[in-house]
Amino acid sequence: MASINDYRDIIGERNIKQIELLARMSRNKRIVMVSSTREGGGVAEILNRLVPLLNELGVDCRWEIITGDNGFFNITKNIHNALQGEKIKFSGEELEQYRKVNEENAKSLNLDADIVIIHDPQPLPLIDFYRRKKTKWVWRCHIDMARPDLYLWRSLKKYIVKYDSSIFSIAKFSKSLPHPQYLIAPSIDPLSDKNRELDNKEIDNVVKKYKIIRDKPIILQVSRFDRFKDPIGVINAFRLVRNELNCQLILAGGTSCDDPQGEEVLRQVKREVKGDSDIHILCLEPKKDIVINALQRIADVIIQKSLKEGFGLTVTEAMWKGKPVIGGEVGGITIQLHNHITGFLVNSVEGAAYRIRYLLNRPLISHKIGEQAKEFVLNNFLITRHLKDYLALFNILDNPGKNIIYADRS
Amino acid sequence: MKKFKFYDYTMLISPTGQKASNLKEFLNIIEQSQDKVLFHHLYQAHIRHDKNVGEFPNDFTNWVAYELGDIALAEKLANFDPYDYKTVAEAKEVLIGIIEEHIWDLPTIPWVRQGFEFYFSSSTTIVIPLGIEVVNLEDFRNALDSIPGSSLYFHFYESRKIKKEKEHDDFSMWIEDNFDRAELVKKIRDIDFYFFSVEEIREKLINILDEELKSV
């Protein structure tokens, strides 16, 4: 696994030194992160890198996982969807089960720390069962909370207000809350198997294994099979493009063990593409990161036509590979893609089709947008910036009410 | 001679949870906002990576122009320089006056479409030594080439608010205190800095210093 020094060539000596200084200011802190899965999904990917890097820098950081049965994760998946705006009715029993499973988890988790960071709604109620006076509790929300379902929001708000602060990915997701809120954008790891440079042999292996024929332009969407990722919309956009241009579509989806509804969406997608030889569905197991990396590198245009999106790390990954990206104008995608500069934002199937045609027909512009996108990620969305933000947060939590903190003013 | 120690900073933005969907709400929230919120949107816009930064010098003007589409008000706000006032509170009062007068003459209140509201925030900054120290003007000029934009912003913009003096950027203060170069100090202080981006300021400072060093 990469060490902090391995990032020196990417972000420069000065940034590494600043991270080390901020880390020195947090060396006496004990941090614990809590989430619902160690594998699959953006949160797990980020924590898999952040936690070891924090420890390497001398900050004591542990990562705890809550457990639950399929019933619990079905409820939390519905909570996730309702926070993203879907109208879902929750029975009293469901909300009680959600709370109860957290109560059970609180008995076995070790949450003794100076700062407890709870990721997303699954472990949110833990605060009711493990509150320690001196511990600062932070809720880190990765979800598109622009317009959550009101009834569910009211039910969850009673937990959220007990926290000392909240973190959202973009300002649009923030809410009226009685505690300080902070913005921290997610990030990708440029040295992970999903994002590192690949040699031609590694790419060829993937092409051969998945029987991809590179005889026509490739349009790619990488995402879990989830209604909010709109795979059917992508297929419809692709079919509009194919009326004009010879091309192929790859839908590559991973799975996540806290998302039991993915199978149903995958079945629906398979029904939709039956018999269409230009559309390839690749259902990938976890840890197929090199495959995703290679697919992104062979694609001509990458799409992320989400209808709701907390941030859209697949967009960031594609931008990092210098690819032109088209994304739904929702959530965190809007702070990554700026029309004609780092990609394109779209609001409809037709919009997606139009921008795919625009990019496929203009290879020079596509190339330039891809280059600008890569630079934008370098400056804003790498794991090292994320690390710096967390280290800043730990210091800010120690200095409540201060607008400016001097690390070393002599 | 006192050395110049360059600092950089890292910033965490804190949304207040308030948003404005129309010009009246926008004005009401500004009226109720703490100075730190005004400071963030009026002064710190120079440093953030925003697609529209550079076109107009602050967040409020960019929103009014691009999301609300009220170009007349954007023009009035674009010409408002908050550094002309010693405190954020004074700048806030003048800003409120401009918006109030504009609304007074409007037949209807302009709204934005859903998703394009103005989200109010403040920020906390941690100031970090950059590891660059200089004692002469040649090294100072060379450092200007390599320091990050955030460091340049801190010394040339934010330090004026910390000291509550429009003219007192860190660079000209250091030159004034350590060198007999009144003309150079004047040239730096004459820059109409609020209306330039950080990168434009870098270029201007380097040009001024190159000229000065050549003439010696």
Question: Can I get a quick summary?
Answer:
The complex is a heterodimer of chains A (about 400) and B (about 220). By secondary structure, chain A is an alpha/beta fold. Chain A contains 14 helices and 13 strands.
Percent helix of chain B, as a range, is: 40-55%
Overall mean pLDDT score of chain A? 93
CATH class of the largest domain in chain A: Alpha Beta
- Report, as a whole number of angstroms, the end-to-end distance of chain A: 37 Å
Shape of chain B: elongated
Helix-strand sequence of chain A: HHEHEHHEEHEEHEHEHEHEHEEHHHE
Secondary-structure class of chain A: alpha/beta
Instruction: Write the element-wise H/E pattern of chain B from the N-terminal end onward.
Output: EHHHHHEHHHHH
Main beta sheet strand tally, sense and closure of chain B = 2 strands, antiparallel
Q: Overall pLDDT of chain B, averaged?
A: 91
Kindly give the count of domains of chain A.
2
From the alpha carbons, calculate the radius of gyration of chain B and give it in angstroms.
19 Å
| Tally of DSSP β-strands of chain A | 13
Question: Domains counted in the coordinates of chain B: how many?
Answer: 2
Rg from Cα of chain A: 21 Å
Main sheet properties of chain A: 6 strands, parallel
Tell me the CATH architecture of the largest domain in chain A. 3-Layer(aba) Sandwich
Q: How many distinct beta strands of chain B?
A: 2
Descriptive account of the structure:
- The complex is a heterodimer of chains A (410) and B (216).
- By secondary structure, chain A is an alpha/beta fold.
- Chain A folds into two domains: 4-187 and 382-397, Rossmann fold (3-Layer(aba) Sandwich), CATH 3.40.50.2000; 200-380, Rossmann fold, CATH 3.40.50.
- Chain A contains 14 helices and 13 strands.
- Chain A has helices at 8-11, 13-24, 42-56, 70-83, 92-108, 150-160, 200-209, 231-242, 262-273, 289-298, 313-320, 349-360, 363-380, 383-397; strands spanning 30-35, 60-65, 115-119, 136-140, 165-168, 181-183, 218-222, 248-253, 279-283, 301-304, 325-328, 344-346, 404-406.
- In chain A, strand 1, helix 3 (42-56) and strand 2 (60-65) form a beta-alpha-beta unit.
- In chain A, helix 2 (13-24) runs parallel beside helix 14 (383-397), helix 7 crosses helix 10 and helix 8 packs across helix 12 (349-360).
- The two termini of chain A are 37 Å apart.
- Chain B folds into two domains: 9-122, no CATH class; 130-215, no CATH class.
- Helices cover 52% and strands 16% of the residues of chain B.
- Chain B is built from ten helices and two strands, in the order E-H-H-H-H-H-E-H-H-H-H-H.
- In chain B, helix 1 (23-32) runs antiparallel to helix 5, helix 6 (137-146) runs antiparallel to helix 10 (198-215) and helix 8 (170-178) packs antiparallel against helix 9 (182-189).
- The longest helix of chain B has 18 residues, at 198-215.
- Chain B is elongated and about 60 Å long.
- Classes of the chains: A alpha/beta (410), B alpha+beta (216).
- Strand 13 of chain A pairs parallel with strand 2 of chain B, so a sheet runs across the interface.
